[in-house]
Amino acid sequence: MSYFRPAIDAMTGYVPGEQPKSGIKVIKLNTNENPYLPSPKAIAALASIDPDTLRRYPDPFAYEFCLAVSESLGIPKDWVIVGNGSDDVLNILIRAVAEGSDRQVVYPMPTYVLYRTLAAMQPAQVAEIPYGDDFRLPIAELVAANGAVTFIASPNSPSGHIVPLADLRELARQVTGILAIDEAYVDFAEYSALPLVQEFENVIVLRTLSKGYSLAGLRLGFGIANPKLLSGLFKVKDSYNIDTVAIAVGTAAMRDQDYKNACAAKVKTSRTKLTSDLKNLDYTVLESHGNFVLTTPPKGNAEEIYLKLKESGILVRYFNQAGLSDKLRITVGTDEQNQALIDFLSTL
Ligand SMILES: *Cc1c(COP(=O)(O)O)cnc(C)c1O
User: Fold this and answer.
1) Would you tell me how many other CB atoms lie within 10 Å of the CB of residue 64?
2) Alpha carbon of 127 to ligand 1 centroid (Å)
3) Which CATH number covers residue 206?
4) 238 in helix, strand or coil?
5) Domain residues for 228?
6) Is 87 close to ligand 1, i.e. is its CB under 6 Å away?
7) How far apart are CA 181 and CA 163, in angstroms?
8) Same domain, 214 and 108
9) Domain assignment present for 1
10) Residue of the nearest CA to atom 2 in ligand 1?
11) Tens digits of per-residue pLDDT, 127-171?
12) Residue at 91 is within a domain
C-alpha cells in the first residue's frame, strides 16, 4: 500500500548539487552560480523595500519586472511569463501541455535532468534522443518523436555546447508541438535564439536570473513567447508564484544590463584560462558557452577526483550516469578559486 500515485512511486526525485551550510568555507564550483555579487542596484533595491508592501499579496503578473524585461530585451511587454526560477516556468509548461504517451516530452541527451523529473510527475512519457559525439542537433529524430513539447537547452548543460540558430530554426519549423529553448546560460554565449519567438508561434525562450545576474537565491526566471502561447500557461501558473522581494530586486537587476554583461565578460575570460589550464594537465575539455566546463581527467577517474576535491573543500559536479561518469562539470569561479582548483588537481 502506498499513499502516492503510481507515477510518484515509480519516479526518482531530482537530486540538486550539494549546498553546504552557510559558515562552512568551501570553493563552490558545483551548481553554476555566479562568483560575483548581484548588481549594486539590485542590492540597493533590496535594502529599500518598504515593509508595508510585504503585508499585501504580490502582483500576480509581476508587471514591473515584465516591463524591465521588455525594455532590456526589446520584446513586447505582454510576451513575458514570470516564474519562481525558470524551473517554475518549465514546470508550468509541462503541466500545461504534456500527458501520457500521446503528449510526450522530448529532448536530446545529455541535458538538464529536471525535464525528466517534471515529466515523470505528470506523468508524461519522455523520448530521450542521444546527441552524437559531435553534439549536432539530431533534428530528424527529435521531430519524429512528436513531442507535445521539445526542450533544447542552448547553451546546454552539462556539455556547454551551443546549438546553431539555423538548427533551432529548422526544428521550430518542423515540430508540431511547442519548442522550448532553455537559455539559462545565454549571458555567457555569443548569441541568443530570442528572434525565433517572433518568427514562430510555437517557440518559447526560457531565461533565468540565477546564473548571469548572480541571483540564484532570489528564485526568478521567465519565459518569452507570443500571448497566444502564454495564455494556456497563465491558467496553470500559481497566482502568487513570484514574491514582492523578487519583483523589486529582479527588476533592478534586469535594468542593469551593463553590470551583468561586465560580470559575464569576467567569467568568459576566466573560462578561457581554466580551459587552457585543464588542458595543460592533460584533461580533455569541451568548448563551453556557459559558465562551466565539462572535462574528462586523463585517467577517466572522475568520481575519485570529485571525492578528493570534496575532501579538500572544493565542490564540483559529478554525474553518475551513462556518458558522463568519466567527466566532471566545473563551474567557472573567480580566477583565485579556479587557481586553487588547478593547484589541487596538479598534485594528483
Ligand atoms: C540552472 C538551470 C535552470 C534553472 O534555473 P532557475 O531559474 O534557478 O530555476 C534551468 N535550465 C538549465 C539548463 C539550468 O542549468
Assistant:
1) 13
2) 21
3) 3.40.640.10
4) coil
5) 40-257
6) yes
7) 10
8) yes
9) no
10) 184
11) 999 998 899 999 999 999 999 999 999 999 999 999 999 999 999
12) yes
